[in-house]
Amino acid sequence: MNPSTDRFKLQEIEASDISFIHKGLSDPEVTRYYDVHFSSLEATKEQMDWYADLKSNGTGLWWKILYKDSEQCCGAGGFNALDKKHRKAEIGFWLLPEYWGRGIMSEVMPVILNYGFENLYLNRIEGIVESENEKCRQAMNKINFRHEGRMRQAEQKHGKFIDLDIYAALREDWYS
């Protein structure tokens, strides 16, 4: 089952989507606060393997986001770090810059969350955001994720320690 909204449909990412994934994950604006960046199509195969491994190992699922009317791909979103025992997963999301500010995240994320709660039987969905990524932090609040705290100097990026904010949506909060 592929989730959809009034304007968008989600389709599972497949190996044939490599050019689109490369377009997004080679863009410095997209990857500024992202853990990966690929400078070549060849290097992007690593990300495609990651998507395939998530699905085959049962540890996640990612979709490309397309406009229903034009079939134009504008971003990707989904789950990784899926833990069936504890019924939780981490959510991720990115959009090509030309689609920023169009309300896509506000429209698509609730459908992805519903999929997680209803089809993957999750109790908890986490979002981990670089503390300097103010736009993403605002978006997480807008779609009713609860800010649970800041992990100070939790990771290294470009030779410096960075802080990460953790957000979560719980099944009981989502349906209340």
TrEMBL record:
Domain N-acetyltransferase: 8-173
Gene Ontology MF: a single term: protein-N-terminal-alanine acetyltransferase activity
Gene Ontology terms: cellular component: cytoplasm
Signal peptide (UniProt feature, chain positions): none
InterPro entries: Acyl_CoA_acyltransferase, GNAT_dom, N-acetyltransferase
Record key words, sorted: Transferase
The UniProt record lists the keyword Transferase: yes
Entries under Pfam families matching the protein: Acetyltransf_3
Full protein name: GNAT family N-acetyltransferase
Native source organism of the sequence: Christiangramia salexigens
Lineage summary: Bacteria, Pseudomonadati, Bacteroidota, Flavobacteriia, Flavobacteriales
